[in-house]
Amino acid sequence: MDLAAVDPDRRGPAREELGHADRALDYFASVGRVPEETEHLFLLAALAPRESEPAWVDAILPYFSSPDPDMRMTLCYAMPFVGGVDSSGWAEFDPPLISMCRHDPDPAIRDAAATLLPPR
Predict the structure, then answer these.
(1) 19 band by pLDDT with thresholds 50, 70 and 90
(2) Model pTM?
(3) Which tens digit of pLDDT belongs to each residue from 39-53?
(4) Does 4 reside within a domain?
(5) In the structure, what pLDDT confidence band is assigned to residue 109 with cuts at 50, 70 and 90?
């Protein structure tokens, strides 16, 4: 997905909250690891439109099954930005979040994913 081509008027309000994403990225910098893929995921989340769109869902969905536990934890940090920090997220991500809560091999990721499930 070409983020430069995204119409700024269609992005969620989270673009104003990029400072929060910067703090999360600072954490990864402090532990000596800010992979490009981490930055990409935060940008996807922060620039996502308020309402879900298939192309955006398809761009984020693979992170749920990443073999890298750091990327799955990064997903947990980034998910609150999807659709805007004042939204309850996109329902399309409920099934993979539930699966992550129940089946991720890392207990910290299971706990983090559980906090992301909104009441629906």
Answers:
(1) very low
(2) 0.69
(3) 788 888 888 888 888
(4) no
(5) very high
Residue of higher predicted confidence among 79 and 26: 79
In a domain, 99, yes or no: yes
DSSP state letter for 49: B
Total structural domains within the chain:
1
Which of 13-17's residues contact partners 24+ apart within 8 Å by CB, and which partners?
13/50, 13/84, 13/85, 13/86, 14/45, 14/46, 14/47, 14/48, 14/81, 14/82, 14/83, 14/84, 14/85, 15/46, 15/47, 17/46, 17/81, 17/85
Domain-embedded: residue 2:
no
Tokens 């997905």 map to which residue?
A: 1
Q: How far is C-alpha 61 from the chain's CA centre? A: 9
Residues 6+ apart with CB under 8 A from 14: 45, 46, 47, 48, 81, 82, 83, 84, 85
Whether 5 is covered by a domain: the verdict is: no
Domain span at 95: 10-114
- Per DSSP, the three-state class of 12 is coil
